[in-house]
Amino acid sequence: MKKFCVLKKFSVLFFLYFLFYFFIINCFVLVIYGEENNYSKDVLMNSIFSIQFDSNSWIIQSIDKDYLTLVSKDIAYDTVSFHFKPKKIGKTSIEFYDLYKKGSIIYNINISENVQINPSFTFSFAENTNISNTSNTTSYFDIAFFLFSNGMYQDAINYFIKGKENEPLNFQKIGASKIAYYLGVCYFNLKQYNVASSYFAQAKNSSIFDIQVYSYYYMAKTQIMLKNYDLALDNLFFLIYKLNPDNSLYDNSYFLISSIYYEKKDYEHIILLIYPKIDILDRSVFKDYFNYYLAISYYDGRKDFLTAYSFLKKISNSSFEYYDKVQEMIKNIEANFIDFH
Q1: I need a labelling partner for 260 at 20 to 30 A (CA). Which of 48, 80, 85, 332 fits?
Q2: pLDDT of residue 126
Q3: Has residue 47 been placed in a domain?
Q4: Count of domains in the chain?
Q5: C-alpha distances out from residue 98 to 9, 55, 139, 241, 279, Å
Q6: pTM metric for this prediction
Q7: What is the pLDDT of residue 7?
Q8: What pLDDT was estimated at residue 132?
Q9: In the chain, at which residue ranges do the beta strands (DSSP E only) sit?
Q10: d(Cα 177, Cα 175) in Å, to the nearest integer?
Q11: Is residue 2 exposed (0-12), middle (13-18) or buried (19+ Cβ within 10 Å)?
Q12: 82 with 13, same domain?
C-alpha cells in the first residue's frame, strides 16, 4: 500500500512536471511565433506572387482555395518557395507551419484590381503572352514571365523549359521565336553569352518586329561581350538601317558602334559614322559621348584641333565619364592652337 502511494505521488509529480514543461514550451513558441510573425502582403489579380522561407521545413497549414491557387512549391537544400495565383478580389490569409520549430505564421493577403504588373523589362510585346488556360492550374509560361519580370532569370529559364516540354499548345500560341528571345535575355543576364547567342540567332528570324530588332540588338551586345566585334557591327548596322531615328535602339546602336570604333582607335570610321548624323544625335542621351568621340577622332586622328575644339566645347556635363579629359584637351588647344588676340 505504501509502495502504491509513493508511485501515485510520483505519477502526480510527473504529470505536473509535464504540464509545466508543456506550458513553458508553448509560451516560448508564442514568443517566437507571436504577432511579429503576422504579415501583410498586397498582390494583384493578374500576378503570381511568391513567399520564400530560409528553411525547407515549412508547410502550408491552411489556405482559402476560393481566393488562392497554389501554383508550385520549390524545395531546395535549405529553402522552400511557394508560388500562388489569386482567383478573386478580396482579403484572405495563408497559415504556414514550421515542422522543425513547431510554430506557425500567418500571411494576410489583400488581392486588388487587375493592374498590369510593372515589369523591369518594359517592351510592349512582353505583356501579351496569349496563354491558353483550360484548367485551374497556372501555366508554366505564366510563372516564367512573372519570374523574368522580377529578375529571377535562372528560375525563369527552368519554367520556360518546362513550358516547352509540357505545354505544346501554349508554346505554339506564344511562338518559338518569342520564347527563344526571352531565354536569350535570361542567359545574357546570367553572363552565359554563348548560350544567349544561340537563342538570339533563333529569335532574329521572328516575324514580330520588336522581337526581331531587340534580338539583333542583344545579339550585338552578346558578341561585344565575347569580343567578336565584327559580328557585333554586322548586327548593329542592320539596326540603324532598319530603324527610325526616334526609336531608342537607333541611338543605342550608334553608341555601341562608335564605342567599338573608339576602342579600336578607328577614328576615320567614327567621323564617317557620326558626323553626318550629329544634328540628330545631339538630341540623344549619348550626345556627350558622340561629341567626345568626334573630338578625339579629329584631335588624335586628323590633328584638326579647331574642329576637335568645337565638339569639346559642346560637352558641359561635369558628371560625364571623360569630363576631366575634355577640360584638359580644351586647355591644351587654347594654350597651343588658338590665338585669342
Answers
A1: 332
A2: 41
A3: yes
A4: 2
A5: 37, 9, 29, 59, 64
A6: 0.64
A7: 45
A8: 47
A9: 38-44, 49-53, 58-63, 68-75, 80-86, 90-98, 103-112
A10: 6
A11: exposed
A12: no
Question: Quick check: is 28 in a domain?
Answer: yes
What pLDDT band is residue 305 in, cutting at 50, 70 and 90?
A: very high
* Grid cell listed for 174: 506564344
Is 43 a member of any domain?
yes
- CA 7 from centre of chain: 69
**Would you say 320 and 288 are in contact if contact means Cβ atoms under 8 Å apart?**
yes
Tell me which of 80, 98, 115 is where a domain ends: 115
Do residue 44 and residue 109 come from a single domain?
Answer: yes
Cell 492550374, residue located: 137
Query: Cβ distance 256 to 221 under 8 Å?
Result: yes
Report the pLDDT value the prediction gives residue 230, as an integer from 0 to 100.
96
Q: Give the domain extent around 80.
A: 37-115
Query: Does any domain span residue 183?
Result: no
Residue 99: CB atoms within 10 A of its CB come to 11
Task: Share the mean pLDDT of the chain.
Answer: 83
Task: Dump pLDDT digits (tens) for 84-100.
Answer: 888 888 899 999 988 77
| Residue from 110, 114, 174, 109 nearest 148 by CA | 174
Q: What's the Cα-to-Cα distance from 330 to each of 64, 95, 295, 309, 318, rounded to whole Å?
A: 70, 67, 10, 6, 14
For the CA atoms of 212, 214, 216, 221, the dihedral, rounded to the nearest 10 degrees, stands at -160
Amino acid at 289: Y
**In the chain, what is the greatest distance between 2 CA atoms, to the nearest angstrom?**
127
